[in-house]
Specification:
Elements: H1 3-28, H2 34-39, H3 42-49, H4 55-71, H5 73-81, H6 85-92, H7 97-111, H8 115-123, H9 126-133, H10 139-153, H11 157-165, H12 168-175, H13 181-195, H14 199-207, H15 210-216, H16 223-237, H17 241-249, H18 265-279, H19 283-291, H20 294-304, H21 311-323, H22 325-333, H23 337-346, H24 350-364, H25 368-375, H26 380-388, H27 394-408, H28 414-417, H29 426-440
Length: 445
Amino acid sequence: MSQRQVLQVFEQYQRARTQFVQAVAELSARPQNAESLRSAGVMSLLRPLLLDVVPTIQQTAALALGRLANYNDDLAEAVVKGDILPQLVCSLSEQNRFYKKAAAFVLRAVGKHSPRLAQAVVQCGALESLAICLEDFDPGVKEAAAWALGYIARHNSELSQAVVDAGAVPLLVLCIQEPEIALKRIAASTLSDISKHSPELAQTVVDAGAIAHLAQMILNPDAKLKRQVLSALSQIAKHSVDLAELVVEAEIFPVVLTCLKDSDEYVKKNGATLIREIAKHTPELSQFIVNAGGVAAVIDCIGSCRGTVRLPGIMMLGYVAAHSENLSMAVIVSKGIPPLCTCLVEEQEDHIKAAAAWALGQVGRHTPEHARAVAVANVLPTLLSMYMDTNSSEDLQLKTKRALKNILQKCTYLPALEPLLQDAPPNIMKHIVGQFSKVLFPWIF
């Protein structure tokens, strides 16, 4: 047998491997094929191809595994049990950029499903290799690594801490400064996923200098990037007064208010969430937002959108109003009551109605003047009917009951109370009668 004939055998074998792995990768792109491929033993067949001498075969095998693992946790579990992860991690530091992207995709696809599967990714030493990939010359490799780290960090504080311990945070902060928009988005998203779990993790992100760079991107024209930037700043600000003040000191006001008029609904929602997370902490922070025009901007935002996009704005008005009489009056003067009443009536979801009821209760609970401002909007009968409606959720009934109690205990405007006398149950009636007594027989009280 000549040397050419011998080589032909190897060429045929290579062509067969190439055809096989490409066919599997194409089949794995369709969810309906996933279980058939698994039943046929595809995992054990793809595993040796990850170490193939031909780079394209390695990359395509990794891509197929990633697609399969991405579908559900059973397939991801099969990747873990097949002892495939250690091979991927070893190759991350050695192979070319195409393989690195494919390998990071597999790690992300496995880690996204549950904390247990994410822990399996951590235990095979993936975090250190992924962190090294954040320094890669190729932006696509950095993006794939950042994405995998974010999917691991989002599960819980322990996994998030493991990502921090791998040295990823300073490198992610460098990534948000890169020119590529896609990389900025993923890096900002991962910083958000790390920050959300605890004040300590958020502080780690702050210490790496993230706030200033995130704040600079609030006006970026890319909507998806703005979503992630606003989310990251919200996740930092929510934990404590100190962290919220650091976000405010980055001069995000009044710039962030422009996000409330954005054409992208998620930018609006995340912008309102950021303002809410700052306002909730102290009267001083709420007053700062009022002075910056934040309350008026949020009220406009609530009036211009529908559904869950309204929710953070509704809650923000409630938090501001809850702090003090003056801040509650700022909500009233800015014409905040009518849109809250509209939300209460228009919205279909009980949890949004409940938030609107809670916010109205916070506005009206301070003085007779505050209570009257809410009462003249004719919202008390609506609150009462929702409280008495057996189809209302338990939370909505509780929130409407508390709102009624808060407002009624201060309300001395009798024309607004009279319509309630006919239908109110005894536990609400006692507050109504009590207010009539205070007005008609003040010498008794």
